[in-house]
Amino acid sequence: MYTIAGIEFAPHYPKVADERVRVWVVDDQASFRLATAATVAATEDFAMAGHCETGESAIELIPDGSAGIVLMDIHMPGMGGIEATRRLRAAHPDLIVLLTSTYNVEDLPPEVADCGAAAYLHKEHLTPDLLTRLWKASH
Fold first, then answer.
1. What is the pLDDT of residue 67?
2. What is the pLDDT of residue 17?
3. Pairing label, strands 119-122, 69-73
4. Best exposed site among 25, 37, 54, 112 by fewest CB in 10 Å?
5. CA-CA distance, 95 to 24, in Å (whole number)?
6. In whole numbers, what is the pLDDT of the chain averaged over residues?
7. CA distances (Å), 102 to each of 2, 29, 44, 61, 130, in order?
8. Is the pLDDT reported for residue 28 higher than 60?
């Protein structure tokens, strides 16, 4: 169990030291953004860089070098996470995007396989350990 006391929940977080992995969360559900901020705060060498609610805002707000990992919800109003991932990866090829959802792997749309995401992560399985392992596996 992780506490969220003291976590600043604002769209952009203060500048983070370069040695920490900067995490952006793109999800239309405020509860998941808040839970993810708590998980990132509990993860050694990781820090929140920012969050947004739509694929469109992710394209606008995640400038080059501002993120190490983007946790991208697959289904959002407007531009979904699959298309947003394609566009972010085209603009920033070194960016690691992890798609997230509550769906089981076998229920994911086929476009997930070719959008440029490094992996799929079921939202319920997000933990500091798994976040660290996915980061290391993607590097």
1. 80
2. 47
3. unpaired
4. 112
5. 11
6. 86
7. 20, 12, 25, 25, 16
8. yes
Choose among 118, 98, 89, 87: nearest CA to 40: 98
The yes-or-no verdict on residue 92 having pLDDT over 50 is yes
52: Cβ contacts below 8 Å, ≥ 6 apart? 11, 24, 25, 26, 58, 61
Beta partners for 100? 73, 121
Which CA distances in Å does 14 have to 11, 19, 24?
A: 10, 15, 13
Helices and strands per DSSP (H, E), number in the chain: 4, 5
Q: How far apart are the first and last CA of the chain?
A: 28
Collect all residues with Cβ–Cβ distance below 8 Å to 100 and sequence separation of at least 6. Answer: 27, 32, 71, 72, 73, 74, 81, 120, 121, 122, 123, 126
pTM: 0.85
Closest residue by Cα to residue 138 from 68, 66, 36, 33? 68
Residue type, 109: P
Q: In b/e form, how buried is each residue of 47-58, taking b as 16+ CB within 10 angstroms?
A: bbbbbbbbbbbb
Q: What is the mean pLDDT of residues 67-90?
A: 95
